[in-house]
Design goal:
It is built from 2 helices and no strands. It has about 130 residues and is an all-alpha fold.
């Protein structure tokens, strides 16, 4: 967007200079010799910008098509992954070969009950007397 404004401002400035020098050729006849070069560059800039705009449109179309192909490819990939899981089973290590993470159960440690030796003994002297 910024490039487009820059292009438009520059080429518009060239057109204004061309018009002004042509309109005032009596006062600045020595500058009129450079106008053909400016006109050629103006025409070339317009041509290049039209080509650039066409390429940007084509780029957008290609990008849109690429996004569609990627979306379709991912749908097929999901189908194949589920098929591999259905064939081998969801926890088979063979799935790794297909790029599928096998289901690995979480092994939880059982909370062990403390033994009698580990439990602190409560002495009658250390317990507070509720009657006091």
């Amino acid at each position: 967007m910024a490039e487009e404004r820059l292009y438009m401002n520059v080429v518009t400035g060239w057109d204004k200079m061309d018009t002004a020098v042509t309109a005032n050729n009596q006062q600045v006849p020595h500058l009129e010799i450079n106008l053909p070069g400016l006109r050629d560059r103006t025409q070339r800039a317009r041509s290049l910008y039209a080509q650039y705009a066409a390429m940007m449109a084509a780029k957008q179309e290609v990008w849109k098509e690429l996004q569609q192909v990627l979306q379709e490819g991912n749908a097929v990939l999901r189908f194949l992954r589920e098929g591999v899981k259905a064939h081998y089973g969801k926890d088979n290590e063979k799935l790794v070969e297909f790029g599928v993470q096998p289901f690995r159960r979480i092994k939880r440690k059982r909370a062990e009950k403390p033994t009698a030796a580990e439990t602190p003994a409560v002495s009658p002297a250390s317990t507070p007397d509720p009657a006091k």
